[in-house]
Amino acid sequence: MTEVESLKKEIERLKAELTETKEISRQYLQNIAHQLTAPLGAIKWSIEALKDERVPLQRKKILLSSIYSQATILVHLIKNFALMSNLEADHELGQFREQPEPIDIMKLAINLANDFQPQAYDAGIRIEVDDDSFRKAIDNQKLRIEKNLVAQAISNIIENAVKYADKDSTIRVSACNNTTHFGIEIESIGIPITDEEKKSIFERRFRGHSAKQKVAAGTGIGLYLASRVMAFHQGKIIITTNGRLSCFTLQFPNKLIIRGN
Questions:
Q1: Domain shared by 140 and 54, yes or no
Q2: Structural domain tally of the chain?
Q3: What is the pLDDT of residues 178-218, one digit of tens each?
Q4: pTM of the predicted structure, to 2 decimals
Q5: DSSP assignment of the chain
Q6: Residue 221 sits in which domain range?
Q7: Which in 26, 64, 133, 170 has the greatest CB count within 10 A?
């Protein structure tokens, strides 16, 4: 093969790759637009209903709860998209390398779970945080982490649990510890995750078959971002399943545990 022929082949390959990238980007942007439109539409409709004097007070209280729920979803989506955009430009999360600080991880977990309580309530699901497990696993100590990144990782997994859990089920958030790692466990009963899906679940844009069946729209970046955040903290996410029961454990090295101030 001559050098000219070789260059032609390379140009054709690059053109095909560019076309594929443009199509993926188009689909990705359409997905983002769809996901942002849904909560914005729900918020707009609820506000219109609140303005209606004929709507009873009790109904207005429910509408306010719904607005809070949809706003939480919206903020969560925007944070994910912003983090994803920055990762495109910086594959090592360098832009986020703020000074890690001692964080009360139980309080953080409770606050994040509370953020998703209205959304869970609307779906007929409960979220419970096992305070005792956190006290046993970490006592009065704190975790030295980059708070905003870890908060986003935990939120992504709780949000997934709410989306895919069975109605009338309970999502449990607890803590565990061993000689090497401190873990935050998020357990739910819902769509099954196959062994084959476990191999790809943290890949960017990957969504399992059952996930697509239950929630058609999705970017497939939530777990990818969560895994990147954990890698940044020298940790990882472990998945264990038993039928429809799934448990995602965010594992942090014990060296991040410090005596709280």
A1: no
A2: 2
A3: 989 999 999 999 888 888 888 888 887 777 667 766 665 55
A4: 0.72
A5: --HHHHHHHHHHHHHHHHHHHHHHHHHHHHHHHHHHHHHHHHHHHHHHHHH-TTS-HHHHHHHHHHHHHHHHHHHHHHHHHHHHHHHHH-TT-GGG-PPPEEE-HHHHHHHHHHHTHHHHHHTT-EEEE-HHHHHHHHTTEEEEE-HHHHHHHHHHHHHHHHHHBPTT-EEEEEEEE-SSEEEEEEEEEBS---HHHHHHTTSTT---HHHHHH-----S-HHHHHHHHHHHTT-EEEEEEETTEEEEEEEEEGGGEEE--
A6: 99-259
A7: 133
